[in-house]
Write a structure and sequence with these properties.
This protein folds into 2 domains: about 35 residues, no CATH class; about 170 residues, Glycoside hydrolase/deacetylase (TIM Barrel, Alpha-Beta Barrel). Helix content is about 45%, strand content about 15%. The strands form 2 sheets. Strands 1, 2, 3, 6, 7 and 8 form a 6-stranded parallel beta sheet that branches. α3 links the parallel β1 and β2. The protein has about 230 residues and is α/β, with parallel strands linked by helices.
Length: about 230
């Protein structure tokens, strides 16, 4: 599929000035594969995990931020393990938070170094590699990478494959980076729950702790447990 998508994109781009409509149609799959999270046309994206249990995987993006100690206390209180997809630039500024995350039994994933949300999708190969490597240099070894906003381009999978890493997506999302109401966030998450769901939440916003706690309670009320990320 990857070769087909790239080939269509190249042909579409080559003919777009002569036959704009046909060129746009041929180029469209590459745009969709790049900008729509979890689509696997350019390579594998883990948006669920295999399980025989009624369990989900909690992932938390955009840290480490000042609310990390309080968030770790919250997770301890509910006996929940999570994977923190961190920004390298923040991890470098707060290595003590990274140490606390690991010491409290959670795992770390790479969320790029500077989180260029608006243009990660159009970065060239060397810039993609730099975003991955600079973050890896300041966090414990990890095989997990989550692209900013879930966007990726045709250079992301080769870079990850070279480093033995996997692209991690999500299946339950609430847009809580901008949505402020914890109840709305929790309701959106639980609507997408199924065994093996990967739940995406964020830290660092004024409402993040309330939203995460409300969501944990709502997930538990529906009979789900949380995957132990250290297994």
């Amino acid at each position: 599929m990857r070769i087909v998508i790239i080939t269509l994109g190249v042909i579409g781009l080559a003919i777009t000035f002569r036959w704009p409509l046909i060129g746009a149609i041929l180029f469209a799959p590459l745009v969709i594969a790049t900008l729509v999270p979890n689509i696997e046309w350019l390579g594998p994206v883990a948006s669920r995990f295999k399980t025989d249990e009624r369990e989900v995987w909690l992932t938390i993006d955009d840290g480490p931020t000042d609310d990390t100690p309080a968030l770790l206390d919250l997770l301890d209180r509910y006996a929940v393990h999570a994977t923190f997809f961190v920004k390298g630039i923040l991890a470098a500024a707060h290595p003590e938070f990274i140490e606390q995350i690991i010491a409290r039994g959670h795992t770390i994933g790479n969320h790029s170094h500077t989180h260029p949300a608006g243009f990660f999708w159009c970065l060239p190969p060397h810039a993609i590699a730099r975003q991955i490597d600079q973050c890896n240099a300041v966090i414990p070894p990890t095989k997990l990478f989550r692209a900013p906003v879930g966007h990726k381009n045709l250079f992301v999978h080769p870079a990850l494959r070279k480093r033995g890493m996997a692209l991690i997506g999500f299946s339950a999302r609430a847009y809580d980076a901008i949505e402020r109401d914890p109840d709305v966030i929790a309701k959106r998450i639980v609507r997408s729950l199924e065994p093996g769901a990967i739940v995406l939440l964020h830290q660092g916003r004024d409402w993040s702790l309330r939203a995460i706690e409300t969501t944990i309670v709502a997930i538990r009320e529906r009979g789900y447990s949380f995957r132990n990320t250290n297994k």
